Structure formats: C-alpha cells, structure tokens
C-alpha cells in the first residue's frame, strides 16, 4: 500500500494497527473494530425495564441494577447499557 504513510499520521487502535499490517479485512467477525453496534432498545424492552425499575427501586440494601439485570430477559444487556438507558429514559 503506497499510501500507508498517510494512515500513520492518525491515532490507531491496536486492532486497526493489526489490520494495517496483516491486511484489511483480516480480522474475524466480532473482533476489534469490526464489532457490530449495540442493538437499540425496543419499546417492549423499555417497558420491561421501566416496570422492573419501579418494582425494585424501593428495595433496601441491594444493588438495583444487579436486580434488574437478573430479571431482565434476553438479549443479555450489560450493566452499562442498562444504566445508560435508565438515565436516557
């Protein structure tokens, strides 16, 4: 690649640097920069999250997010995603 020097002018993540040295599209699906975005919250998931929040917000001595995650159905949201969505709502 004759124009690789231009890419060196900008900050790269380790995954992007690996991709530059091994060739583009060398990373497998789900690795590094080729990961997909987080799926958006559906209205049903938002409703379920809202109901779980109102149900468990008054529980003393417990972590409300951990409780919500335990009762939240699939697709397996992370703690960070749940907190971010609660703040957004």
Entry summary:
Helix content is 51%, strand content 0%.
Give short descriptive properties of this protein:
single chain; 89 residues; mainly alpha; 5 helices
Describe the structure.
The chain is an all-alpha fold. It has a domain at 41-88. It is built from five helices and no strands. It has helices spanning 4-7, 14-22, 43-56, 64-71, 79-88. The radius of gyration is 20 Å and the shape is elongated. The N and C termini lie far apart (47 Å).
Any chance you could write out the topology, listing elements then pairs?
Blueprint: H1 4-7, H2 14-22, H3 43-56, H4 64-71, H5 79-88
GO cellular component, one term: replication fork protection complex
GO molecular function, one term: DNA binding
Protein name: TIM protein
What is the C-alpha radius of gyration, as a whole number of Å? 20 Å
Number of helices: 5
- Strand-residue fraction? under 5%
Which structural category fits the helices and strands?
mainly alpha
The average pLDDT score comes to 78
H-E string: HHHHH
First-residue to last-residue Cα separation:
47 Å
What portion of residues is helical?
40-55%
Low-confidence stretches: none
The total of beta strands comes to: 0
């Amino acid at each position: 690649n004759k124009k690789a020097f231009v890419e060196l002018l900008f900050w790269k993540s380790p995954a992007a640097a690996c991709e530059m040295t091994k060739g583009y599209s060398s990373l497998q699906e789900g690795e590094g920069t080729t990961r997909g975005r987080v799926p958006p919250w559906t209205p049903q998931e938002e409703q379920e999250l809202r109901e779980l929040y109102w149900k468990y917000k008054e529980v003393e001595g417990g972590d409300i997010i951990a409780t919500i995650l335990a009762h939240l159905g699939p697709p397996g949201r992370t703690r960070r995603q749940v907190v971010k969505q609660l703040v957004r709502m």
